[in-house]
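In full, the data:

***
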Amino acid sequence: MKINKIKYLSGPNLHSFKPTIWIELDLGELEHKPSNLIPGFTERLLSIIPSLKTHTCSKGYAGGFVERLMEGTWMGHILEHMALEIQYLAGIQVKRGKTITSETRPGIYYVTYDYREKESGIHAFHCAMQIVEGILSGEEHIDAEPHIARTAQLYYDNKLGPSTESIYQAALARRIPVERVGKDSFLRLGTGRKQKSVQATISSQTSYLAVENACDKEMTKNLLEGARLPVPNGVVIKTPDELRMAGEKVGYPVVIKPVDGRQGKGVVTNLQNLEHLEAAYDYVTQEHSGYTEFIIERYYAGEDYRMLIVDGKLVAASLRLPPAVTGDGVLTLRQLIEAENENPLRGEDHEKPMSKIPMELAECCLAKRERSLDEIPPHGEVIRVIGNANLSTGGSAIDVTDQVHPSYTHLAVLAAQTIGLDIAGIDIISQDVTVPYQEGEAVILEVNAAPGIRMHLYPSEGISRDAGAAIVDYLFPTQEQSAIPIVAVTGTNGKTTTARLTAHLLKQENRRIGLTHSDGVWIDDTCIDTGDCSGPGSARKVLSHPEVDLAVLETARGGILREGLAFRYCDVGIVTNVAEDHLGLDGIETLEDLRKVKRLIPEVVLPGGTCILNADDEGCVAMADYTDGTIVYFSLHANNPVIQKAIKEGRTAWYADHDWLVCASEGHTWRFLPIRDIPITINGFARHNIANALAALAAAHSLGKSITELRSSIITFFPDMKQNRGRFNLTQIEGRCIIADYAHNPAGIRAIYDTLSQMRMNRLITAASAAGDRPDEAIREMGSLIASHSDLFVIKEDENLRGRAPMEAAQLLRDSALKNGLDQAEIHIVLDEKEAYHAAWKLTQPGDLLLLVHDNFDHVEQFLSEIKQKQPAGQVRTSPRFRKKNQRFRPAQGESSFTPTKRGV
């Protein structure tokens, strides 16, 4: 077996809305060996991973997978289940997987399954392969535990910490966009101008000065004292020589802690005398060498409480308990601590609900009580091995939120406000927070600017408090306040024009629109990236841009299959059409497969959003069953049954009725504009652009643009190189008409020739290539279409051959053209794109039409620039007039006329 390709689909994808690993697996000889034909395989596998017996598989009940193994199933399917189970046994909550057999490539399987963190997710699959290969090779001893342990370690090493994870999950539950940025605990919540962020539990709304003050314990104490809040007496020291004076001034027992310490690091409590204080100082300075200033504070007896304040409200309160072990009369304190650190709830740093107990600190704390790690405590004795109750030093917590007296709530809220923190953890020592606060009976030890919320999420006793949700609700009270509107455009053809036109229609003062399409990324009129930008990476550039108010995102097949979507929800989803294109790639082998890919956009439309579907495309119409959005159909035919049904039911529809575009909604019908008045329709000739216009109008109308506003806007969008670059751009030079378009598949080529059939010309000369990742039949069909409509055919080649050998795609085009009407003399092969354009130009005569089907539009612009430089002034027109209704296309005065060719074009 071998893995050909791996993809991490982090966003909603063809297989799931959750992160999914996609693997192209080649079984090799095992294609002929299902599990029932491998003696002893099933029994051995189940002995290594017994919990596979619980898998339901397609049977729908526990043990269903075992039945499949007995009946005979293939290794791709088996590895899928094993990868899921190894992750699950490692503590990773995953459950969905699916394996699909390639219909055209024997032995190839497409394996998909859930993952939460990609390093552990793919490691689980490699582990599954090792176990299977070990069984097949007859290894005697195969243990799954090391694989499970390593998978778990990778997961905890790379996942978000508990606090950040709870914020992330709370955002998802509220349909608030959330994204981890980098490998640390930084989250971006929301999109565009509405976005905010958190780092651990510090928000983008947290005052920097407040954080600095909270991190400076002396400043914190000064501010709290100024507000007449209770704080312990203490002094700051910088050298060990100051310890004696500090201890005597404050009075024993005392606490030592770094002035700028965090998470309880370097804190030692209940020091009874100078000897203990000096030993604690030595420990802290050795273990935490970065600290140079310390506070020596009076130690106050009482219970240690943490109160979480968010936006001036008490969200959670915990009674914190120092780490303790219970003697059994056999084990030493060291052994008891080591055993407790094996508790699966304990981990390094903040990876798990509780942290491991640091042995060195325990030794220091025990020493001041004249106890040793090597002593054996009697059975039943409970020993607190560390004085402070911070979770980061092994402490635990009991939830007491509902028991806190309002006076203590007020005390905690006032402390957070005094420091200036929107999110704060207030540490209070009190004998009892359930009774009214009395002066002198409690002190505020610390105000934390980045409070950990593990203790509230995973209390040792009591109710779990969703502190992450409280933080998210503070940042975004509603989903609408978190996300800018998103228009997602997909389909086989017309995506770029529809996206550009939609953005144009939605423009208004004081609103910045982010636009992605196959030619770049734009923020209003500023291009911030070039190239094919129709994938999730480009979408994220718009969604993360802090000035964008609305996003229009072309969403192509390739990006969906490569990474999934960059967004979980959209407000408007458009599907222009679905035709055979790119089949045979990444497991998409049929038209129905492709429809499922494009259907993802309707599936992610928000309830209350709008799903815009092409009523002339049966595949699009079928997508209506998969969306929660309001469906708006568009059509080139007023008598389309789907349109007529929508009108009868009072729903919104946009359609062409003879020479007019029409909008119907709620029983009313508006004649929008004559089609010939809309420049993008090329005087009504370009049927494909009429459809694109209908889709864009429906989108803009659904987002609040009035019919009047749309009429004014659409007539200012032109099919030129500025507004619709590379899409049916027309230039006239020396009596020749040059049209450049990105018709990259048979459906696109057919639409272009349908438009050209309305125009007069002497001859039609086409310069075109075929993308190498198309099936042979699709390339042959393009060759056939070009040959049947063209007088001359100049065949070029794309820069990226996409897996084809040089000349391979060109030869397929040539052979097809020869079979469909062109002879050897009418076909020219010039592989370089720009050279091909010049060769085609040399073949033209006045009155000819030259169609440039481009791969790289830069080459078109360079070609046009070069030939324009050779022309006399006045011989170049880039904004031609189109014929009026019932007239043939006529060139400007002094230019040759265009007449039908022998093929009737």
Notes: The longest strand covers residues 605-614. The chain has a mean pLDDT of 90. Residues 2-158 form one domain.
